[in-house]
Amino acid sequence: MFDGLKDMGKLMKQAKEMKEKMKHVQEKLKKLKVTGKAEGGKIEVVMTGELECISITIDPGLVSANQTVSLQKALLKAVNDAASQAKNLATSELSDISGGLNLPGF
User: Fold this and answer.
1) pLDDT (tens digit, 9 = 90+) per residue, 17-76?
2) pLDDT per residue as tens digits for the range 57-67
3) What total number of domains does the chain contain?
């Protein structure tokens, strides 16, 4: 009977430690940055590890009236590239502390 309580206490301690570690990783992800590129680097999108887009850079040579549609498609590609990298970064960082558990939302 008391062995079950010991195990429960140990489990609660581990859960608390994991919660603290996850909070630390989430703070770290706010500071980490990834860069998505398209059109041979002429378009760059920078995001945080939390998927916040913090800058978009477009080479002036790409901007002209007849290139609007292709520019929009390339910009979308760059944003999605950065978001994908940020998701992979978050998954990698959080898997270290979750012991490989597949946590929803990460």
Assistant:
1) 888 888 888 888 888 899 999 989 988 888 888 788 888 888 888 888 677 778 878 888
2) 888 888 886 77
3) 1
Domain span holding position 6: 2-98
Q: Which two tokens stand for residue 37?
A: 């590129």
Helices of type H across 1-98:
2-31, 68-98
Angle between helices 68-98 and 2-31 (to 10 degrees): 150
Cα–Cα distance list, 55 to 15, 33, 41, 94 (Å): 37, 11, 14, 25
Give a yes or no: residue 103 inside a domain: no
Instruction: Let me know if residue 106 belongs to a domain.
Output: no
Confidence at residue 75, expressed as pLDDT on a 0 to 100 scale: 83
Q: Residue 82: CB partners within 8 Å, gap ≥ 6?
A: 34, 35, 36, 45, 46, 47, 53
Which CATH number is 46's domain given? 3.30.1310.10
Q: Is residue 104 part of a domain?
A: no
- Is residue 58 within 8 A of residue 37, CB to CB? The reply is no
